[in-house]
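OP here, attaching both records as promised.
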Amino acid sequence: GSSPSFPSAKTRRIGEKGASKVVGEVWRIGDVKISRIVEIEATGGMPRILTDARREKVVAIRWLYPHFADEEGRMRGAIHALLVETPDMSILVDTCIGNDKERSVPAWNHLQTGFLNDLKSAGKGREEIDRVLCTHLHTDHVGWNTMWTGSEWVPTFPNARYLYGAKEFNFWRENAEDGQAQVMQDSVLPVWDAGLVDLVEQDAEICPGITLIPSPGHTPGHASVLIESAGQSALITGDVLHHPVQMAHPEWSSSPDVDRPQAVQTRKTMYNRFADGPTLIIGTHFATPTAGYIKKDGDAWRLEV
């Protein structure tokens, strides 16, 4: 197939300290439009997640610079949702951290962002979303599932069916502790209680051309999202990897991975499947530019943007 069109990103300045906010990364895959809705983009938050990725090791991987690491080896990352618009359906994949949530990570605690306005700027109000699809049920993938009314958590997208992996949902319903228990209470179960959840298998077809691929390891029921239209394709990774450095080092685990050997195997399987092919890889935590192509690189892989 022909190559997907690449994003055009505009930067506007926001915030007291002139932090820049990226808006307008959009990709077209055949008849499908994918828009990135950024909640947070930052340098320096990754070492907590990728404890093996020490700066002196990162700086040696030259292809990470300038997009994914700075000249000192500090990694860049992001938290964003992806609005996937097919000719018939608007699907929001992963819903970030959310506003007003009590979280143990200080930078994520009681956020106040313009996420819903940014979604509207990308073309959809919250009432216009048909499906909310969560690759898994961690805190930074389900936050905007609900919003605070002042007295309770209610579904943010009242006209959507929310798609949770059956294995994922059942695992956390039985095994959630501490922070994850809180996430279930404020961001996952209120939607279930409202009767808006459909539990799906890890390889479910969401609609024609949009299919889940099982990608376990980070969580037991984790799934990635394959988008195919008019001879073009894209993959939304979810947390198979958190940063492109894990293409150079698939053995570097993410600290929240529940099954590290499985997560390493899933990464290698995914890279082998898509390396040197036409599928655009859209990283769920990649900083701008958020998408590229996996290339074989000796015994490992790299991301070409």
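Record two, same layout:
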Amino acid sequence: KRGNMIEIKKLDISKENLAMAKELTKEYSDSITLVNSDSVAYLNSYHGKQIDLLYLDSWDYPYGELLDIYGGKIDIDKAIDILKALDDDEIIERHGDIVAECQKHCLKELHAGLPHLSPNGIILIDDGDLPGGGKARLAKEWLIKHKYTCILDQYQSLWIKW
């Protein structure tokens, strides 16, 4: 916090995304710091104040690529239905090579951010309710194993440590 204000850091590897964020949040510019960096590298070298909300949302989940495998370019509704019919383990078995990188990166982000999380800090992970567990799958498995509590588990997944 800066005085009574909330301090927000927006990390993005894309300068274009940061430029858009700067434009969309210009009225809050005194509270937001935009940082052009890889999230894992930044968090591994972070020396700032403790983080109250760690929001993990880098790397896009390859949902479109999975849909294309099942005919998404021809019939998107059919492709969605096929993917919905497969359980997460089956998606990983069939397409682990496609989804693994974003899931591993999310777990790396979690590990890099946790040492900086405040005692009452919150972890929010995006893209968690997608085939194969979304990009949050490995991070959620780790959080469960390490006694974190899931408060919300939909498209976004919200975790705390009791």
